[in-house]
Design brief:
The complex is a heterodimer. By secondary structure, chain A is of the alpha+beta class. Chain A contains nine helices and 25 strands. The longest helix of chain B has 32 residues, at 155-186. The chains are: A alpha+beta, B mainly alpha.
Chain lengths: 444, 187
């Protein structure tokens, strides 16, 4: 009764004195606050006031305008590279022909009727040493394979002499595109991550080349090998610079499918005795089809099958997970029915958080610093943990396996030293288990 | 002079003037709240700033159903709790022995014997955990269960911290009381 009265007195005292007490803040607090408000206001979108969004918008507009102007200037460079073109014709015939040979693929029939006078003149004058017909058509042939151009169309091109004359060039100059060639072999590939591909640069003569693989990687080798670790669609770009200093850009696409991951657990209510139905829980990802091998000669293709073993024995259960694209992964659990999946183990030391009690709830991720004394376990159903001091006084008890000891007793950090623990467990197969041991509480 | 309603409406539109009026009108009261949760005035003023930022940017959430002062106080208390969480890891616990064995024979305190400045000082000297729990329970009138949820601690921790806080406060007040009465006898 007495303490109750004291308590109320103390509470009343503080409540009456302090509940509506007023304290005058420093003048600096107000100016400081208003500065912070102004800063926050600046970062907040508000159409009525100058803020970061307006400034950002102005910057972006400015940069875009600059980029457009700049690229416009570059485009005009590309459209009139006639001098360059002459040089190219003399010096680097092989890659030039290759460029030409591919060009018809980009040309739509019909457009080629529009002919630019100047260009025709320039190409007629150019002393183009054309390769023999067979060589040219070989180049054409190889592109044919990649792009599966209809043969009839190709023949018509050949008849018109498109490959030997400057029609494609005209097309290129009209549209302002860089010449593009299919120089990458393989041109179109797909597979499961991690996907290893060796690329071949098919251009016959060049100064240097640069590969960019679309996943941030690049290479300067002629025929690089690249591994795509992450699923996705990638555009591989090959930039070839030939003797004339001319860029030829070529692209290829790579599709990397996700690799499935096989993972399962065995739902054992009891130890595996004959005629018990055992359920298999499937946690596989990225997979659509499954193949189970129960180790006793039977198999299943169900997502989560149940199986009855007729005899005692050691069975190795294997699961193969397959994805839509034929990628697969497998996992095998050896001796799946033995009791080895029931265990509970305790560490022999831990370091409590010196800054205050953590409450004792832990997760394997959050407790990397070993601040909570808790077991690693599997298949535990009932659980009781008691901690005693050296004098035999119980200082902690937990009936929840997720609640470990944080090293505090009534909010106070316990002395560093040795403590005794005792655990009573019932495993899921009904087996009781008692274990005792000691743990050292360490100081940080 | 603007009414509360006008202030709220203008503050919701981020009117700089209204924010200043709001500050001038309520900062004294709210610093009174913040000071109870802080270990000194500078910290209390930090909390007060955060508290006003929260008020300015969330004032549109004030529905107008309860009292405005009550809402402001609640924001201040919540800010103080956020502050408590933020600073928890940087603050070392004070040796507990200092506080454990405090015996006290005083059963009641006269209301006007201590000034509020003195009470503030007593609170400021408490360890952060004690101070927060004591304030929430004794002054704000929350239940232990609610306090445990707010602070992320166990209900029992809240209770034990409160009772220890009481013991410490009682000890301090007693000491202070003796000091004061000896002064008044001497003079």
């Amino acid at each position: 009764m007495k303490t109750r009265k004291k308590d109320i007195n103390l509470r009343e005292l503080f409540r009456q004195k302090l509940e509506y007490a007023e304290v005058i803040p420093d003048a600096a607090v107000k100016s400081n606050l208003m500065r912070r408000v102004a800063r926050k206001e600046f970062l907040r979108f508000n159409p009525a006031r100058l803020n970061i969004y307006y400034i950002g918008g102005i910057l972006i507009t400015g940069i875009t305008a600059a980029v457009i102007l700049f690229s416009g200037a570059r485009n005009s460079d590309i459209i009139n590279p006639l001098n360059n073109q002459d040089k190219l014709n003399k010096t680097d015939t092989s890659s030039y022909i290759e460029v030409r040979a591919v060009q018809p693929i980009r040309t739509k029939p019909g457009i080629s009727n529009v002919i630019h006078n100047e260009l025709i003149r320039s190409t007629k004058v150019s002393p183009l040493p054309v390769k023999s017909e067979s060589e040219v058509s070989k180049v054409v042939e190889s592109h044919q394979r990649v792009t599966s151009f209809p043969t009839s169309l190709r023949n018509s091109f050949s008849k018109n002499g498109l490959f030997n004359e400057a029609m494609p060039d005209k097309k290129k100059l009209q549209t302002g595109f860089e010449p593009e060639a299919f120089l990458i072999e393989p041109h179109d590939s797909a597979g499961c991550a991690p996907l290893k591909i060796r690329f071949h640069n098919k251009s016959t003569s060049f100064d240097s080349c640069r590969w960019t693989f679309g996943d941030g990687g690049y290479s300067d080798q002629r025929d690089p090998e690249w591994i795509f670790d992450v699923e996705g669609e990638y555009k591989v770009v090959l930039e070839v610079i030939n003797h004339a200093g001319k860029d030829i850009i070529s692209t290829a696409s790579v599709t990397v499918h996700p690799r499935p991951q096989a993972h399962f657990e065995i739902a054992l209510e009891k130890t595996g005795t004959p005629n018990d139905e055992i359920r298999f829980l499937n946690y596989s990802t990225n997979a659509v089809r499954f193949k189970w091998d129960f180790g006793d000669g039977s198999a299943s293709e169900i997502f989560e099958p149940s199986h009855i073993y007729t005899k005692f024995g050691n069975y190795n259960v294997r699961l193969v997970a397959l994805s839509d694209w034929g990628c697969s992964d497998s996992v095998t659990v050896f001796n799946a029915l033995s009791g080895s999946q029931y265990f509970i183990n305790f560490p022999n030391a831990f370091i409590p958080n010196a800054q205050g009690p953590s409450g004792g709830y832990y997760s394997l991720k959050s407790d990397e610093a070993a601040q909570v004394f808790h077991p690693s376990y599997s298949g535990v159903s009932d659980y009781q943990l008691k901690i005693f001091s050296k004098l035999g006084i119980q200082i902690f008890e937990s009936n929840d396996i997720n609640l470990g000891w944080d090293g505090y007793n009534y909010g106070q950090l316990c002395e560093p030293g040795v403590y005794i623990w005792k655990v009573r467990v019932k495993f899921r197969n009904g087996e009781p288990f008692i274990k005792m041991g000691d743990v050292t509480l360490l100081k940080k | 002079m603007m009414s509360d309603r006008q202030i709220i409406e203008l503050c919701a539109k981020h009117d700089r003037k209204a924010q200043q009026v709001l500050y001038d009108k309520y900062s004294h009261l709210l610093l009174g709240v913040c000071l109870r949760y802080a270990s000194d005035k500078a910290e209390a003023e930090d909390i007060l700033q955060d508290c006003f930022l929260k008020i300015f940017y969330n004032i549109k959430d004030f529905t107008g159903s309860g009292s405005f002062i009550g809402w402001l106080r609640k924001v201040a208390v919540n800010t103080a709790i956020t502050h408590y969480h933020k600073n928890l890891k940087y603050r070392y616990h004070i040796e507990i022995e200092e506080y454990v064995s405090i015996e006290t024979g005083v059963t009641s305190f006269e209301e006007d014997f201590f000034t509020s400045d003195e009470l503030y000082k007593v609170l400021n000297e408490l360890p952060t955990g004690y101070r927060t729990v004591f304030n929430l329970y004794a002054v704000e009138g929350y239940k232990h269960k609610e306090i445990a949820e707010m602070l992320g601690i166990d209900t029992n921790t809240s209770k034990s911290q409160y009772s220890r806080a009481k013991a410490v406060i009682r000890g301090k007040l007693e000491k202070l009381g003796k000091l004061k009465s000896s002064y008044s006898e001497n003079s």
